[in-house]
Amino acid sequence: MIKGVIFDMDGLMFDTERIWATLWKPALATLGLSYKEGLDAAARGSAGDSMRAVLRRFYGPDCDTDTIMDALHAQAETAFQAPPPKKPGLDELIAYLEAQHIPMVVASSSRMASILRHLNNWHMTDHFKALISGEQFTSSKPDPEIFLTAAKALGTAPAETLVLEDSYNGVRAGARGGFVTVMVPDLAPADDEMRRLYTAECKDLREVKKMLEEGKLLSEA
């Protein structure tokens, strides 16, 4: 059975990815750079060295990756002053998991300040046993280290831990770590690679709850 659940945040818990996608252009403009098509999709779900590698691919090996990332987050400080909408079914799924005494953590590529801002704005922080940020690691998703750290916080083995993700990099990380990985697509639909990697696909978090209730999301052990 599933003994713990790991939530991604952006695009999975909150409808933030559409906002992030609009921030690249003004952030880059502050540095005299132009937005290059495909950057948002390539960077989605990444942080740390994974994000730096994406930026070097788009802007060359000598670009100042940390300055670009800081400019993006400076835009986010303004954009996310108002709480972004919750994704459908989030409250119902959390209530179900708590009723079943299944512990939860958030493991997001976002900076910890961003994680805390969104959760605190909705008074949701206390639902989670731990909050884990991609900035704590040299390599974030698709490297599974963030999820393996989350599983340790839960006290569960990967094979009995559910990872909920919307991004390709998140699904890759869940699969590489040996987790029960469910994709709930947001901006990017599942493709053939995702279908090979994930355990299941759900249209929203209400469907995740229904699958858990019906015993259709079993551990891989």
Provide a descriptive summary of the structure in words.
- It holds the Pfam family HAD_2.
- InterPro entries: HAD-like_sf (IPR036412), HAD-SF_hydro_IA (IPR006439), HAD_2 (IPR041492), HAD_sf (IPR023214), PGP-like_dom2 (IPR023198).
- This is HAD family phosphatase.
- The protein has 221 residues and is an alpha/beta fold.
- It is 45% helix and 11% strand.
- It has 10 helices and 6 strands.
- Strands 3-2-1-4-5-6 form a 6-stranded parallel beta sheet, with helices on both faces.
- β2, α6 and β3 form a beta-alpha-beta unit.
- α1 crosses α4 and α3 packs across α4.
- The longest helix is centred in the N-terminal third of the chain and has 15 residues.
- The radius of gyration is 17 Å and the shape is globular.
- The N and C termini lie close together (9 Å).
SSE order, one letter for each helix or strand:
EHHHHHEHEHEHEHEH
- Write down the Rg: 17 Å
Inertia-based shape = globular
In DSSP terms, counting alpha (H) and pi (I) runs of 4 or more, how many helices? 10
The percentage helix is: 40-55%
Side-by-side strand order of the widest sheet? 3-2-1-4-5-6
Q: Largest beta sheet, briefly?
A: 6 strands, parallel
Q: What is the strand tally?
A: 6
Beta-strand residue fraction: 5-15%
> Low-confidence parts, pLDDT < 50 over ≥5 residues?
none
Q: How much is the average pLDDT?
A: 94
List the helices and strands and how they pair.
Layout: E1 4-7, H1 17-29, H2 39-43, H3 48-59, H4 65-79, H5 90-99, E2 104-108, H6 112-121, E3 130-133, H7 145-154, E4 161-165, H8 168-176, E5 180-183, H9 192-197, E6 200-201, H10 205-213
Parallel strand pairs: 1-2, 1-4, 2-3, 4-5, 5-6
